[in-house]
Amino acid sequence: MIRRLGNGSMWTTYFMQTGRLTESKYTISLRRKFIYKTMAKRKTLQEADPKAFQTMLAFEKYLSESSLSKTHAELIKIRVSQINGCSYCINKHTKEAREAGESEQRIYLLSAWREVPFYSPEERAILALAEEMTNIAAHGVSDAVYNQAVELLGQQYTTEVMMGIIAMNAWNRVGITTQREIES
Q1: For 1-13, what is each residue's pLDDT tens digit?
Q2: Contact (Cβ atoms closer than 8 angstroms) between residue 43 and residue 94
Q3: Do residues 176 and 86 touch, judged by C-beta distance below 8 A?
Q4: What count of Cα atoms within 13 Å lies in the side-chain half-sphere of residue 1?
Q5: Cβ atoms within 10 A of the Cβ of 4, count?
Q6: In angstroms, how far is the first alpha carbon of the chain from the final one?
Q7: pLDDT tens-digit profile of 48-96?
Q8: Which strands sit side by side in the sheet containing 2-7, from one edge to the other?
Q9: CA 127, 129, 132, 133: dihedral to nearest 10 degrees?
Q10: Higher pLDDT, residue 40 or 9
Q11: Which of 34, 89, 175, 183 could crosslink 81 through cysteines, CB 3.0-4.6 Å?
Q12: pTM of the full structure
C-alpha cells in the first residue's frame, strides 16, 4: 500500500511494509536534491576553517608523495565516492581519471567490477578493500580481503591504499555535508 504524507510543500512517498512506514531510497534521493536546492548555501571547508582545510591538503600531499599509482588513486576515489553518493567527487574524479588516460569502459563499469574482466588482481584487491573500509560499520574489514591486499600489494602499498581510502571517505563527508555543487 502506498501513502503520500505531506510536510509543508514537500511530499514524501512512503511504502507500508509489515505495519510500519519506511522511506524508499528513491524518495530519499529526491528529497536530498530538494533540500539542497532550498537550503541556504553552506560554506566550504576552506571558507569555514582554513586550518582544517590545510590539514586535509596535508593528507593529499602525503598521498601524492607515496608510491600509490595515479590509476589506483583514481579508482579508489571514484569507487568510494560512488558508495558514499558524493556527486561532486564522482564528477571530479571521473574527469580526472579520463584526463589521466583511464578508459570510459572501465569508469562506467567500476560499480560492477566483480562482474567484468577489465580489472587486474591488484585492482580487485584495492576495490574490495575500498568497499569494506567505506562500509566498515556493516562488518568491518575481513581477514580475507585484508590478507589478499597485503599478499598482492605488499604491506607498504596496502597501507598507502588504506590512506587513500581514508582520505577519500573524509573528502566525501566534507563534500556531502557542505553540499558541494558539481562544476560544469
Answers
A1: 344 444 433 333 3
A2: no
A3: yes
A4: 8
A5: 8
A6: 41
A7: 889 989 999 999 999 999 999 999 999 999 999 999 999 999 999 999 9
A8: 2-7, 10-17, 20-23
A9: -110
A10: 40
A11: 89
A12: 0.77
For the cut 60, the answer to whether the pLDDT of residue 180 exceeds it is yes
CATH 3.40.50.620 fits 45-177, yes or no: no
3-state secondary structure of 17: strand
Task: Please work out, in degrees rounded to the nearest 5, the angle formed at the alpha carbon of residue 10 by the alpha carbons of 4 and 14.
Answer: 30
- What percent of the chain clears pLDDT 90, i.e. is strictly above it? 68
Contact assessment for residue 101 and residue 51, using Cβ atoms and an 8 Å cutoff: no
Residues ≥6 apart with Cβ < 8 Å to 28: none
Helix or strand run (H / E) with residue 6: strand 2-7
Residues in a beta bridge with 88: none
In the chain, the amino acid numbered 47 is E
Bridge partner list, 76? none
